[in-house]
């Protein structure tokens, strides 16, 4: 069953109270993790935690409308409007760091391989992306990432510009560059994702062609031949006015992070501006693609 989690950083004294608040909002479980003892959630080098030493993590069914959960939490006296949080899909066993042992080279489409940076590549003549996701989402093990990688492999990216909206580990932007794109732009709300993307771009020798931005830093009037956004259904609907204008006329759009049951509502948010393809499904998740009309 697919899941989504929300993470809130706080102090040990407030953790239980916030855990109760997450349960009230519908979390099926709540986990407390000491940020000093858990490598998965260590801050970036030089980064200072704004709050405290405990991460409160609420696990929700992936059908949950997380925008409503966040809206409800904003009324909590320990949080307030605009409180810091992180929402992400759950990759298999990622929370136990078992992916480091189970993460093997994987093929997507006809040409593309995603290879852990600590393993040998199976085919030196293939298009190989060497990846260490670090603290960010995106290894290729999650169906949504796999759907996006296979789609990119099937496009003619030679000389094109690609925007990866919600870049995570940088896996999609870097794959696009290795597949022939001239330039890529990665955008993410999480500084850890920007760091992971930068590190992986350097590892793959494409950092000179990848520009990375937090949302408030991105240039105005961005556009690209190909735009891919592997986030979640709620943000894809909410941010549709921003995402719809990123592809050039005739440009490609790929959306994922969407449950099959959510596909229709996401399609409706983009149908006016795009000629949409049939929805592609994989293990309860799906991908929506299309061309922007003139």
From TrEMBL:
Note the SUPFAM superfamilies from the entry: S-adenosyl-L-methionine-dependent methyltransferases
Entry annotated with the keyword Coiled coil: no
| Transmembrane parts of this sequence | none
Catalysed reaction, written as an equation: L-lysyl-[protein] + 3 S-adenosyl-L-methionine = N(6),N(6),N(6)-trimethyl-L-lysyl-[protein] + 3 S-adenosyl-L-homocysteine + 3 H(+)
What are the record keywords, sorted? Cytoplasm, Methyltransferase, Ribonucleoprotein, Ribosomal protein, S-adenosyl-L-methionine, Transferase
Enumerate the Pfam families for this protein. Answer: PrmA (PF06325)
**UniProt GO BP:** methylation
Its EC number(s): 2.1.1.-
Q: Which GO terms describe its molecular function?
A: protein-lysine N-methyltransferase activity
Keyword Ribosomal protein listed: yes
| GO cellular component assignments | cytosol; ribosome
Q: Which residues bind S-adenosyl-L-methionine?
A: 145, 166, 188, 230
Q: What class of enzyme is it?
A: transferase
Question: Where is it localised?
Answer: Cytoplasm
The UniProt function text for this chain reads: Methylates ribosomal protein L11.
Question: What HAMAP family does the database record attribute to this sequence?
Answer: Methyltr_PrmA (MF_00735)
Question: Which family does the record assign?
Answer: Belongs to the methyltransferase superfamily. PrmA family.
What is this protein identified as? Ribosomal protein L11 methyltransferase
């Amino acid at each position: 069953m697919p899941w989504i989690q929300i993470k809130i950083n706080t102090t040990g004294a407030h953790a239980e109270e916030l855990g109760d608040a997450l349960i009230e909002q519908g979390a099926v479980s709540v986990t407390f993790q000491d940020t000093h003892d858990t490598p998965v959630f260590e801050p970036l080098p030089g980064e200072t935690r704004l709050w405290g030493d405990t991460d409160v993590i609420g696990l929700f069914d992936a059908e949950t409308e997380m925008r409503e959960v966040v809206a409800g939490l904003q009324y909590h006296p320990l949080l307030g409007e605009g409180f810091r949080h992180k929402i992400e899909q759950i990759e298999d066993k990622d929370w136990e760091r078992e992916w480091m042992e189970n993460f093997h080279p994987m093929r997507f489409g006809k040409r593309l391989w995603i290879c852990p940076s600590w393993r040998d590549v199976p085919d030196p003549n293939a298009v190989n992306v060497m990846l260490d996701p670090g603290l960010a989402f995106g290894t290729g093990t999650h169906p949504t990432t796999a759907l996006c990688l296979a789609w990119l492999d099937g496009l003619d990216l030679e000389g094109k510009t690609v925007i990866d909206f919600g870049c995570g580990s940088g896996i999609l932007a870097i794959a696009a560059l290795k597949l022939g794109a001239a330039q890529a732009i990665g955008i993410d709300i999480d500084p850890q994702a920007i760091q992971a993307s930068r590190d992986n771009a350097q590892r793959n020798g494409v950092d000179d062609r990848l520009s990375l931005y937090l949302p408030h830093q991105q240039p105005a009037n961005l556009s690209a031949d190909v735009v891919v956004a592997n986030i979640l259904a709620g943000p894809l609907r909410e941010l549709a006015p921003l995402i719809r204008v990123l592809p050039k006329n005739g440009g490609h759009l790929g959306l994922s992070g969407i449950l099959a049951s959510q596909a229709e509502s996401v399609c409706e948010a983009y149908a006016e501006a795009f000629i949409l393809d049939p929805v592609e499904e994989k293990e309860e998740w799906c991908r929506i693609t299309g061309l922007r009309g003139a």
